[in-house]
Amino acid sequence: MCRGIRRFVGLFLFAYCFGVFGLKAEVAVRTTQWEGDSICVAFDFKLSKHEKISDEPSGLDILWHNAEVINKKALADNQSVAYRIRKISSDKPLTYDVFYVICGDTCEPRSATGEIIQNGLLSESEAAKIFGIHEDYATLMYLVLMAFLGGLILNLMPCVFPIITLKIFSIAKLSGKSLHDVRKETCLFASGIFFVFFTLGIILLYLKETTPVIGWGFFMQEPACVFSLMLVFLACALHFLEICHFRMPNISQNSRRTAGAFLSGILSGVASSSCVGPFAGVAIAGAVLGAEGMQSYALLFALSCGVALPYILIALFPNLMRLMPKPGAWLQIFQNFMGYAMLASTVWIFSILLSQLGSDGAIKILLIVLAIVFLLNQLVNIKKNQVWRYVVVVGVITLTAVGYMQIMHTSSEQIHWNMYEPSTFETIKKKNKKIFLNFTADWCLNCKYNATVFDDDQVIETFKKNEIVAIKCDWTKGDKKITSLLRQYNSISVPLYILIMDGKSKILSNILTRKNLIKAIEGKDE
């Protein structure tokens, strides 16, 4: 009996010394006042002269509940550690578990558990000093300056300059008019720029919360947005080259100028936001990755101020307009030059679509755009025939919708094309697998037409179900290995489609359809 009691007491003392029951160390907790859902917390470890924490406070194991750690700092005396935390749920308490080891003559583990309750014992000035809030402020000011300078330089970037000249061209036409008109138009243009960056700020903050990875220029990653920008650039080019004039119907000239100035500002803001020039990259990285809330807005606002600065100056000091030459013959030359500059910008936008959609998809879009240009050009020749004008307008709208549908229609799966290599081809044949050879070339129009069949969902499913190994033999540059293979099938031209099943080769029609291709693969065409 006595032996059992002694054993129990010994185990209890052992457990007590080593913190099994959560031995409370002398840890003082100090906090600042709540700032929204954030608070600063300092843990002060009261140690004697001969004691130390074997693992410095910066490496302590502190388990937080219902909290997100924003920042963490160990103080110089190594007897305190401070946290800047954010409460996740306002309905639940914010608690902590601290685990550490105190070493003196011996070392023993200890722990502390508790709830964070605001006590105000950590002053705001001390918290600011601990977490370097003043340094953060200096960093933010540096990023704001970089954003402003970067925005100013963006006016000269190739992707923005053609849009900016839209406003220069418009301002040149205002030469000699009232200062009120000059101020009004430049302010509206600058407002369009601010509107774009403010909207992007809202979208960016939302995506930072909902999307794990987000980057600047995210909208330029969407083919539909790129296609929209391409149409706008092309419309500007057609307008400058006087192929087609775009006007807002049923509104006064003043209202038309007002709307045009604001829309030009929006276009300039969109083009500016798709570029990253000198200085702007540092600020944009800060807005996307590091800054939070109003800091992101401050950086984007500074960037938009840099882009809009030349027009803000004209609005504040309209007498600067006197430095511009009077409208004359030079204006027509400048207009033609800007038309070709806008065409060059359209080519740049098309190159983005080319990389996003591939050559086949981009060519379809290009054909649609050419048809739109043809119809717009007809508007100039049928001014008196209102019926045909409406027909042309409906045609333009329809073709534009077809372009968007072409972009949005992407199959969930695609046929995986293996590029032809003689050794790989022979290896696959020896394994007695089903093979589809696609002899094609970029300059072959029939090939491009047939390529649409391979994007069909049923065709893709048929290839997958029958485990077809698809091999593309690209003859665009006249590959000798592909020429040799063509001759094996008694052909010297493309397109050519060969289906190899059960060791037998079958030549398909030069004009593919979904029906005849599926029947050939499933062996139902005989």
Structural class: alpha+beta
Cα Rg: 35 Å
Strands of the widest sheet, in order across it, are: 9-11-10-12-13
Ends apart, CA distance between termini: 97 Å
Oligomerization category of the chains in this entry: single chain
Task: Explain what you see.
The strands form three sheets. Strands 9-11-10-12-13 form a five-stranded mixed sheet, with helices on one face. It has a four-stranded antiparallel sheet with strand order 1-2-6-5, covered by helices on one side. Strands 3, 4, 7 and 8 form a four-stranded antiparallel sheet that branches. The longest helix has 53 residues, at 329-381. A hairpin with a 5-residue loop joins strand 5 and strand 6 (80-87). The model is unreliable at 5-25 (pLDDT under 50). By secondary structure, the protein is an alpha+beta fold. The chain contains 16 helices and 13 strands. The protein folds into three domains: 12-131, Immunoglobulin-like; 134-408, no CATH class; 417-522, Glutaredoxin.
Task: Give a quick set of tags describing it.
526 residues; alpha+beta; Immunoglobulin-like; Glutaredoxin; 5-stranded mixed beta sheet; 4-stranded antiparallel beta sheet; 54% helix; flat
Give a brief outline of the structure.
The chain has 526 residues and is an alpha+beta fold. The chain folds into three domains: 12-131, Immunoglobulin-like, CATH 2.60.40; 134-408, no CATH class; 417-522, 3-Layer(aba) Sandwich (Glutaredoxin).
